[in-house]
Amino acid sequence: MKNTNKKWFILSGLLILAIGIVIVLAYINREKPYKINILNLEDITTVKIDDLTLEDNVTEYHDQKVIEELYHIFNHKTTNKESTTLNPEYPDRLYIVTFSDQDGNSTSMYIYSKEKNYYIEQSYNGIYDASKEEFEWVEKYVN
I want to staple 100 with a disulfide (CB 3.0 to 4.6 A). Which of 35, 46, 81, 92 is the partner? Predict the structure, then answer.
């Protein structure tokens, strides 16, 4: 009888250990939120907006007020949707916004409309939800 109780005790312990390991692995492998990688606002000296639906239509701004307005559209966005491509697929309207500093460092992301929805996408990082107002805010700075 003692031998049977000992076996059940060991099996119960192993089962509890296995459940604990599964819980730890699930916690470690949970979806992590992606955050837009962007330069610090204080370092940005230029913002360029390229209307990728038209050839040679790049608008460039050095005005700090414009830089700040556009920066706040992209800063602090998080998502669980990973971007696994270089470019957004099949957008209706597409802009690429690039923030640069005086040392030549830059950060780029797309803002686009697709099937009446709006998104920001940073290549190989994340796909973020955007509002129509945010999209139109960028659009108003395109010449």
Answer: 46
